[in-house]
Amino acid sequence: xxxxxxxxxxxxxxxxxxxxxxxxxxxxxxxxxxxxxxxxxxxxxxxxxxxxxxxxxxxxxxxxxxxxxxxxxxxxxxxxxxxxxxxxxxxxxxxxxxxxxxxxxxxxxxxxxxxxxxxxxxxxxxxxxxxxxxxxxxxxxxxxxxxxxxxxxxxxxxxxxxxxxxxxxxxxxxxxxxxxxxxxxxxxxxxxxxxxxxxxxxxxxxxxxxxxxxxxxxxxxxxxxxxxxxxxxxxxxxxxxxxxxxxxxxxxxxxxxxxxxxxxxxxxxxxx
Length: 272
Ligand code: C2E
Ligand code: MG
Ligand code: MG
Ligand code: MG
Hints:
This is Diguanylate cyclase. By secondary structure, the protein is α/β, with parallel strands linked by helices. Helices cover 47% and strands 22% of the residues. Strands 1-2-4-5-6-7-8-9 form an eight-stranded mixed β-barrel, surrounded by five helices. A hairpin with a 2-residue loop joins β2 and β3. The chain binds ligand C2E and magnesium ion (3 copies).
């Protein structure tokens, strides 16, 4: 009919798109209330050091979970929305406080008092002028050893506003927190730039670990990252290690730090 043709040609009102927009707006509203309602929680996944055939836990990575009223929502589904809406600023601050609190709690735990805690930092959060001051304040307020706090940054965050970023990274280093480059190998940083940064760790992206036993390209990439780590004197941690075979292969290649389901899934702090 002519009515339908008209709709085809001028479909500025798309009910499906409208629905997506409304759902997103609703999610932002729900997320806005999530902290107060205590729906956000940090789970922690163990990080392992293997030395002389012995594996021990040396730290954890904090990974956020949202127990929303509609069910459990994974970080990949709400962190981007938190970033878009600006809610990542209060949420990111909550994450830091929560992780610092956990460090504090574990100070009284014989088994866990030496564990360091790695926290994922969103670019939006890092870019804020007061990011370093906020960390400085929290570290002093909670009186934690800053060495126990490790920040996971991504390569793409590091290559934005290089001058500004370099200044911030140096200040963070002076504060005593340690820095890790997450998902290493998937971004766009250059080695020339990396060598200027006082970082401590490269985290090999799990996409290179998954098929390391069967894909010679992945094997070569991991080999290269390990040799960069060695030359720059950085710790290298493999993420997404799921099998004994992957672990053994990585050990034989000279990798010492591991994280993945083989050693434990992310869990509540008391269930680790
Ligand atoms: P990421 O930082 O690279 O975290 C690693 C992801 O791999 C986590 O997913 C973890 O649960 C998962 N993982 C760990 N071991 C294995 C394994 O053996 N096999 C497989 N297949 N996966 C494994 P998760 O918790 O869903 O987090 C996804 C991403 O969301 C994170 O990637 C990070 O970019 C972001 N994210 C998580 N928590 C936070 C947070 O507190 N703040 C910010 N800004 N981002 C976060
Ligand atoms: Mg991470
Ligand atoms: Mg990662
Ligand atoms: Mg990742």
